[in-house]
Write a structure and sequence with these properties.
131 residues, mainly alpha, 0% strand
Length: 131
């Protein structure tokens, strides 16, 4: 049973703890993304992969990173794991899009952004459930 505030009769949620845990798990997700992208870059350099193989690698990197992000956020917060995993995925996606827009200086939104959103949120929600 959750604790209830005497004044408002609402569940006592420590929002600072949740924000810190979500921030940590998204940061770790990006560290994993950077490491995996470096590994993928090395593999592309050594083996001359085709564009379709590189795209498969990119999808695997994103899903793996968001899965771990959701897993960490769900495990650290403890309740409503799937929801906090999904929130972590949305945060991951927003940061990803902002950085992409700044680096590419292109403000067009394509179908890739929509599939990226579902990969980020889906992977992290699954990670939250597993956490």
């Amino acid at each position: 049973m959750s604790r209830v505030s005497r004044i408002s009769k609402k569940p006592d949620i420590n929002t600072k703890k949740i924000a810190v845990n979500l921030s940590k798990s998204v940061m770790i997700g990006y560290i994993i993304t950077i490491i995996c992208v470096l590994i993928l870059t090395f593999v592309v350099y050594k083996h001359e992969l085709t564009d379709s193989q590189i795209n498969i690698g990119r999808v695997i990197v994103i899903i793996l990173a968001t899965l771990i992000t959701g897993l960490l956020s769900g495990k650290s917060i403890g309740k409503n794991k799937w929801m906090y995993g999904a929130i972590a995925g949305v945060i991951y996606f927003i940061i990803f899009v902002i950085v992409s827009l700044v680096v590419n200086k292109d403000s067009s939104i394509s179908g890739d952004v929509i599939s990226l959103f579902f990969m980020c949120v889906g992977g992290s929600t699954l990670g939250g459930i597993l956490g």
